[in-house]
Write a structure and sequence with these properties.
Blueprint: E1 40-41, E2 48-59, E3 62-73, E4 77-81, H1 88-94, E5 105-113, E6 116-117, H2 125-131, E7 132-135, H3 146-156, H4 163-176, H5 180-183, H6 196-209, E8 214-218, H7 226-239, E9 244-248, H8 252-258, E10 261-266, E11 269-275, H9 276-281, H10 286-292
Parallel strand pairs: 1-11, 4-9, 4-10, 7-8, 8-9
Antiparallel strand pairs: 2-3, 2-5, 5-6, 10-11
The structure holds adenosine-5'-triphosphate and magnesium ion (MG).
Amino acid sequence: MESMGAVLNRSEVPLPGVETMALEKVDRPERIEQENRLTVGELFVDDARMTCRDVNVYYGEKHAIRNVSIDVGRNQVLAMIGPSGCGKSTFLRCLNRMNDTVDTCRVSGDIFLDQLNIYDKSVDVVPLRAQVGMVFQKPNPFPKSIYDNVAYGPKIHGLASSRSELDGVVESSLKKAGLWKEVSDRLDQPGTGLSGGQQQRLCIARAIAVRPEVILMDEPCSALDPIATATVENLIAELQEQYTIVIVTHNMQQAARVSQRTAYFHLGDLIEVGGTDRIFTNPRHRLTEDYITGRFG
Ligand SMILES: Nc1ncnc2c1ncn2[C@@H]1O[C@H](COP(=O)(O)OP(=O)(O)OP(=O)(O)O)[C@@H](O)[C@H]1O
Ligand SMILES: [Mg+2]
């Protein structure tokens, strides 16, 4: 186990617009002030599914992610929070090399999925993106039937050798995504005809169908109503038994409900990481506290 509270993230960038607040006198001697841009907290875990070390991301000249090191624990949910534009989606997309699709984007550092360095030249991104699946903010079913939305991935990845096996994959994926009961009698109808919450669960079923190890979710509930949101949140809790999940959210109650660990990003820096309960009750960095108490962002 590496040392807690490791000092990793160095930046001299000033913080325009962040007001210096007088903190009440509290019994927290280790409070880190806002000028300090070193990552604080518990960055590493004993049983990591993904390990990220010194990750930097540039869009052309723009340095969007600075020296981020963090572990994603196996069968855990890691929530990534922070103000708009701080780099949450950028960092999430590093985890399955989705940034490769952005011409100006350059990623440095190491990211491992278990023992595999996913940025190694020999890595084929197509199977990688099945192993590390992604669910986007806006549900984006293919313009195909419900069945074909789920069957598409297993077909192209050769995960089913017969129609009946494919039927089985579609059914089990829809069941795991909590959608089977609602759609089992209309699998041939278009996925785009479902409600927003159903479409998002269809997209989760589509990600699950290719047997991922990690599921990345970028604000998966932001287009959903509270009932559909609750359904997806419950689903995340169930999925976590089998998968490792990284979720970006603007909703701090959601982060508190679904995750075991939380990472707070600010202007491209990973400011603080730790157990979700600790982050929300006893943040060590002033910037984390300002954000979770609504003073910034
Ligand atoms: N394709 C791109 N080209 C150039 N700059 C980009 C690109 N995508 C993101 N950026 C910049 O990188 C920074 C981080 O953006 P990112 O989308 O990761 O933030 P975010 O934390 O996900 O924000 P939000 O909460 O609004 O989704 C921003 O300054 C953004 O303008
Ligand atoms: Mg984003």
